[in-house]
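Example complex used in Figure S2.
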Amino acid sequence: MINTITILGGRSRSGVPEAVERIDLKMGDVVSIVGPTGSGKTTLINDLELFADANTQTGRRVLINDERPPLEYRDNPAMNPIALITQHTTFLSDLPVVDFLTAHAGIRAVKKTQIDEMIQKTLDFANQLTGEPIVLTSRMTELSGGQTRALLIADATIICNTPIVLLDEVENAGINRTRAMELLREYRKVFIFVTHDPRIALLSDYRIVMQGGSITKVLYTNEEERIFSHKVSKLDDLLSAMRDKIRFGERLTTHELEGLA
Amino acid sequence: MKLAICAGPATTGKTSVLRHMIRKLQDAGDQVAFLKIDVQFAEEDEIFAREFGIPTRKVYSGELCPDHCNVMVLGDALQWAERSGANILLVETAGLCLRCSPYVDGGLGMIVVEATSGTNLPFKIGPMLSLADVAVVTKIDRVSQAEREVFRSRIQDVAPNVKVREVNALYGIGIDPLVDAIHNQADTWDKMLLRGNPPVGTCTICVGKKEIGWQAHFGVVRSLENQNFYRGE
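Predicted assembly (494 residues):
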């Protein structure tokens, strides 16, 4: 069983050793990766996917439970550690939701009797993230953007057995992010958000800061940020309420921000 | 000289995968030559020559099947690569009819397929998949984790000995093991053989007999009731 995935620092593009020598990702951690375009977020993900052993461009090494993972991890695609959800990820299938989830759960379940339970859990999880509940008999292609995103996350969290779920810039996906982050904490996985959303960053346990190809620091969310995060969430909710008003052709007034005080 | 032959349906990302591989091979100090085989149009040779300053060529198979063309020209191509000072020859080919495969014993066989082409694709492409050494799956960020896992397990059902590598060819994620596979590949031999058996020796349709129905043909014939899954062996 995987308890920790460790990243041992390598060197930047200019050959300077990485400022952060070691990061331990523990199951249950919710982590953000932040940094401007070109700062090396993608190469960090590459290192995790490949269980790098000083054999990639960055010279980083990845350990599992403090040891070098067996070669099988790199060679067996079923051991791929990352379930990936990006802004472009979608379902291709046009099966009814229940058939689709049954097919996926069928690969994962140890016993047939587990399948129904897995599907129910996945549906409950997804329906807590989206305003419009998903019905098991609707077709995958009929789901809205928010429903699709919610189901992608629920499926990757509950049915997949990858130790890491990576959510790459999914902030504008029309899902309840605060609820998502509460729910994710109930699962023994590492959740990594590639993000620049202050709400998600402050609700994370820590954020990995990247610049020029290296990890420059790891910022743990401190007490001040933790308290402040409620205000950030509030502001974010107000903004999204304003977005809805615009969407439905209403006018905005200065009262919109009154809830913030 | 080391040889890798890369096949796969059109627009799956063969060129993107090869681009990342060439960059990483060059970083490792290798001299790469590139040959593109296509039916009637290709510009990858010009693009790679411009981007990497490597010797490149293309050949149009025209009325020949591209895999047939590959058998014809590969010997010359290896000599050309040798003369050009290369130690690795990458061949990109559009294997089109799905009955044979372009791979040879003595070279690495790679197929590039995209996760977005539907979970039944592994069942449809025959020896191009089952005779490869490595199946490279692209566009993994586009499909749900569920479909990615079904696609992967179907490749392994059809081709249990083929190594599956999932890559993001846009950003070059997952490419390093492909570079390692070329480095670990033995050098080519003088007398190389096509891997697997070609499908049919002579074909009555190819020589111009247009009558419909197997009764009008000879050689290898097939009735509606005679179905088997073709694996090229």
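The two ends of chain B are 27 Å apart (CA to CA). The longest strand of chain B covers residues 32-38.
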